[in-house]
Amino acid sequence: MTNYRRVAVVHHWDVDGISSSAILGRALFKLGVEAHYCVPKIGLYRPEAIDLEAVAKAKPRALLLVDYGLRVDYVDEVERRLGVDVVVVDHHANAVRAQRFYNPVARGAAEDDYPSTTWVLRELLKLDDDLDLVALGVVGDLGKSLEVKPIRRGLELMASKHGLSLEDLYEASNLVNSCYRLLDSHCIGEVRELLVERGVKGVLASCKLKEKAEELKREVERAAARIKEVFARGPVKAYELTSNSYITSSIGRELAYRHRESIVALVHKVESLGVTYIYVRSLKYNLRRALEELRAKGLEVGGKDQVFVVTCLNGRGEVDLVLEALTSIEVF
Ligand SMILES: [Mn+2]
User: What is the CATH number of domain 226-331?
Assistant: First the structure.
């Protein structure tokens, strides 16, 4: 990394992405590398989501793509357009890239062994410090499913070294994620700085973040009251959500926990983004095959074994294709 005197860090807007960029921020500072940060347009996993003009203005020698789950052909496109090395650090299911690609999951490692990008960074940078940030990324990505994972005990120990409990990490994760759920990019930048300077405790002490979380909670309650069931066949249940906040995953997760034996699909049209998301989660069924099938059909899909999201930009019957793929899962 010291080959590059100045880098741009483009990171995912969720708590794992922000914690990862805070870890990198500290590491780059120690190496004397200047870092410029940029968050892609919230909700989009495409080259256009990255403000390449702004990135180019900073004249970086390399761009680090952190926890963003961008398709490998899109990564190559960004590299071509920007004309500098792009380095990927990630843990989302993806094709493998030949160079500058630190994603053990894409290379075949088990998702449970790399539950977050902070965990990938921990290994890559051989971290002994910053373990509160590492643990925060894991708690953010695993959510409540952490309770049944073997990694739980280890995280508890990591947190306790910083005088924190798992509960504290859940709360911090919720506070940090309020920013992107309210589509507030400015807030994301502030939180990253806070994490770089003061770690997880800084987040827990922030009044501004507490207010954000309260604002979000009220919006989630209002939206949850409007959810409609629109499809039910076998284990598959589909719901429709209307809200102009990016609360697809909070509501989708909640529905999945409420219907543990099912595959839950949540169709969420976010008018302020001009995008419809289909969020699919199941605690019981492995969705990887459906994810790959839909990707092969040309849909914009990102995700893992238990969860994936389809982004519908022009409405080409994606909902029907997803329901079709899901209703055939049971056969396998
Ligand atoms: Mn992640």
Answer: 3.10.310.40
